[in-house]
Amino acid sequence: MLPSSPSSGTAVPEPAIEVSHLTVTYPGADTPAVRDMSFTVDRGEVFGFLGPSGAGKTTVHRVLTRQLRRFSGKVHVLGRPVGQGRDRDFFERIGVGFELPARLPGLTAREDLTAFAAFYRGATEDPDAVLDSVDLTAAADRPTAEFSKGMLIRLNLARALINRPELLLVDEPTSGLDPVRAERVRGILRHRAHAGATVLVTTHDMATADRVCDRVAFVVDGRIAAVDTPRSLKIAHGHPDVVVEYRRNGHLEQRQLPLEAVAALVPGAIETIHSREAALDDVFAAVTGHRSGLTEPEAPR
Predict the structure, then answer these.
(1) Is the pLDDT of residue 105 over 90?
(2) In which region does residue 121 sit, left (phi positive, over 0), alpha (psi from -120 to 50) or beta (all else)?
(3) 181: closest CA among 211, 148, 154, 143?
(4) Which residue has the higher pLDDT, 12 or 256?
(5) What Cα–Cα distance (Å) separates residue 241 from each residue in 231, 247, 287?
(6) What is the three-class DSSP state of 30?
(7) What is the pLDDT of residues 132-150, one digit of tens each?
(8) Stretch (H or E) spanning 40
(9) CB–CB of 19/61 below 8 Å?
(10) The sheet that has 167-171: what strands, in order across it?
């Protein structure tokens, strides 16, 4: 049953993920990989898990997906406790994209997705539609043994989407992708959240975290060091200065000015100032002519 709001009496949805005082220590280890960690992820939210390698992000991922069941603390996923008995429907409701995708080299991409769809009892997506969404239509009949890393990453995401999951957990979903295809993947994650799914993204890609996530958590030494919206974190940790680059006597020079120097020009309190030069993603698309609608497969590597 959903809890009720004390003021309005309306039902408040349970979080999609609720972690309380999670601690994980691997056998033989002297220190915990995860230390007394607590966080929640709301339904329909895109939540980012960020931090250096070895910080504990993958360990939490394994707990949430029931690969790792030896832990202390409480973990609830989609309203049900993790680690207590078997739940036949659990894997019907989640989609998981691992950082290092496996391949079935004897199968084509379409055959691979069709095989994965057969694992589920409930309704699944049309394999061709999912392949098109990740820009693999042109490679649908190619053996996955010929796929590059980027193509395998996108096929891996397609597998995670095939069962229409309520909760999507993806690890480094833009690894090995060019800027245009990376942006396409970010759009898929946002679209899934807008459609009602919850998305947990583990990544080192700050562009993905910034553009996709509603909130992000920075994990350091098995603990959450900070959690907030990307914008709030950038403002809190930024410097109220303006950096101006200009050319004088043929030389490029730079000057740092306090934000107050331009505050008199704008009514209201200034929080940030941004220039309008193109990002490298934009330059890539403009120079190469490679747009997200193209379906040309990457060269095998």
Answers:
(1) no
(2) alpha
(3) 154
(4) 256
(5) 17, 20, 32
(6) coil
(7) 999 999 999 999 999 998 9
(8) strand 34-41
(9) no
(10) 94-97, 167-171, 198-202, 46-50, 215-220, 223-228
Put residue 36 in one of left, alpha, beta given phi > 0 → left and psi -120 to 50 → alpha: left
Strand pairing category for 72-77 and 241-248 = unpaired
Phi/psi of residue 73, each to 5°? 105, -175
How far is Cα 235 from Cα 218, in angstroms, rounded to an integer? 15
Q: Is 42 helix (H, G, I), strand (E, B) or coil?
A: coil
Strand runs (DSSP E) across 117-240, as ranges?
A: 167-171, 198-202, 215-220, 223-228
Structure token digits, residue 192:
């899934």
Sheet containing strand 17-24, edge to edge, reads 34-41, 17-24, 72-77, 80-81
Q: What is the mean pLDDT of residues 146-156?
A: 93
CA torsion 277-134-139-141 (nearest 10°) is -170
DSSP state of 13: P
Using DSSP, state whether 244 is helix, strand or coil.
Answer: strand
Q: What is the C-alpha end-to-end distance of the chain, expressed in Å?
A: 51
Give 277-284 contacts, CB < 8 A, sequence gap 24+: 280/179, 281/179, 281/180, 281/182, 281/183, 281/207, 284/178, 284/179, 284/180
Q: Report the run of H or E that residue 149 belongs to, with start and end.
A: helix 149-161
